[in-house]
Amino acid sequence: MHGAGALPTDAEVTDLTLEPIGTGQMADTFRVSVQYSAHDAGPATLIAKLPAADEESASAARTNMSYERECRFYTGVAPTLAVPLPRFLGIVEIDGEPQGLLLEDLAHATQGDQVTGADDNRLDLARRSLAASKSRTGTIVTSAGSGG
After folding, report:
1. Average pLDDT in the 42-54 region?
2. Is 92:75 a contact under the CB 8 Å cutoff?
3. Measuring CA to CA, which residue among 7, 68, 82, 71 is closest to residue 42?
4. Cβ atoms within 10 A of the Cβ of 56, count?
5. Residues 64, 85, 47, 60: what is their CA dihedral angle, to the nearest 10 degrees?
6. What's the pLDDT at 133?
7. Which residue has the higher pLDDT, 148 or 80?
8. Which pTM does this prediction carry?
């Protein structure tokens, strides 16, 4: 978090508590409650997305370089996009390799519902985000990483 500017260099994490969240097909995701040496030095909670404890899932993710790709997205692509994203707080390195992310906790946000769909305000936000993505990069980045 120091390297990402999310935590002052003189502040240290003194305690943390992990709460599993999400379904985790290729990663295990946790809401992390954090205590710091200086009160309010950083976010009270954040999201840690880490390699899956399930070895088969983790192996598939490593083979596809999924962890490295997601880290590169948040460090290289996300800053160029004018779309709503969780704030990037840092990379978790394991054995010197980028393997996980620390992200803003969006617990206050409302999750979309694929069955009932979205209201006009959410659809408008999605359209504006897509248009901003297209205009800033000249291409639309899909989840597969190809342009269109």
Report:
1. 91
2. no
3. 7
4. 8
5. -10
6. 67
7. 80
8. 0.76
Number of residues that make up the chain: 148
More confident residue, 100 or 146: 100
* Between residues 141 and 10, the one the model is more confident about: 10
Rounded to 5°, the CA angle 134-46-123 comes to: 35
Across 94-107, average pLDDT: 89
What pLDDT score does 119 carry? Answer: 83
Query: What top-level class would CATH report for the domain 1-107?
Result: alpha beta
HEC string for the chain: CCCCCCCCCCCCEEEEEEEEECCCCCEEEEEEEEEECCCCCCCCEEEEEEECCCHHHHHHHHHCCHHHHHHHHHHHHHHHCCCCCCCEEEEEEECCEEEEEEEECCCCCCCCCCCCCCCHHHHHHHHHHHHHHHHHHCCCCCCCCCCC
The CA distance from 139 to 148, in Å, is 6
Nearest to 79 by CA among 17, 13, 133: 133
| Edge-to-edge strand ranges of the sheet holding 45-51 | 13-21, 27-36, 45-51, 97-104, 88-94
